[in-house]
Amino acid sequence: MEYIAAAAFGLEGIVKRELKHLGMEAKAETGGARFSASPVEAFRANLWLRTADRVLLVAGEGKTLSFEDLFQLVFSLPWEDYLPKNARFPVSGKCARSRLMSVRDCQAITKKAIAERLKRHYRTQWFPEDGPEYPIDVSIHGDLARLTIDTSGTALNRRGYRTWNGEAPLRETLAAALVMLSPWEKDMPLWDPCCGTGTLLIEAAYLRSRRAPGLTRNFACEAWPDFPKKEMEGIRREAEAQFDPGRIGMIGGSDVDPEALTLCKRHIKQAGLSGKITVMQKDLRDLQLEAASPLFLLNPPYGERLSDKKNCEQLYRGLRALSDRHPGSRMGVITAHPGFERCYGKRAGQKRRLYNGRLECEFMIF
Question: Residue 191: what pLDDT?
Fold first, then answer.
């Protein structure tokens, strides 16, 4: 069957590479990467993808110029191949640049068309919807509608370790992408001097220790009767056996905010990484590491409020001094501040446009 690993803008290529690493042929497209897979492989993708938001089963696609077109498209799809008689099938939706701009109407029409199709197949007029959940999405862009079933359930960034958020939380999928895009190499120390609640540190440790990001959570497809439970359980056990905290090496972080560090330590413990990541309260202007040639990787404040802008720019200058105190170090920073390079006093060697939520940012490597 055909699937889409949905991802934030700018991460499509990374998701494609992740899928290839898992042994699946994939093609990047706007909003994710498309791939063909068996149900077991789709489960493996849910378990192992670090930078994707969801794994969506593509039920069908087609041109829709009217609500009647949408109804006929949805009705024509073989929903009985996916949904058992007692399935719960909530419908979400989104529309962009479409003639059908009422999302609520699109959801209602999709729900009705699926129900009518299932009525004909199961020969019943009523569905209890008390069985496993099959979240359905109708996405209309321009004149093209796409119907998908969400195999993930809760979004894949919900790893399970982050139960408290700081003032400006970095989504786990983006944090993993920053680690993967950075120049971090084997045996190179990694330090986040603005570590906040620790998301970057934990994602780096997960990557280095071969820890599947979805190891301790469940996915919607695990409750579906046509997905092989024994094989999926075997894949989960294999992932547990691969997790090796002894591979983590030198990963640490610091912050001036004691409350953020309290949350950071809680998250590290909940991630199963107690004693594997070093954290301490320290102003980055006073930070001096003993480790040689570290990688500094961070998500500093952006100074979006005018009152914070001056303090942030001083912090950026402090990052340059931090780099200068550590000969051979590298610096990876994600920021939405347009004058970061000016404050840092140097042009980045590499840049990449990414989105932190809806905020357009640049990931810079010095």
Answer: 98
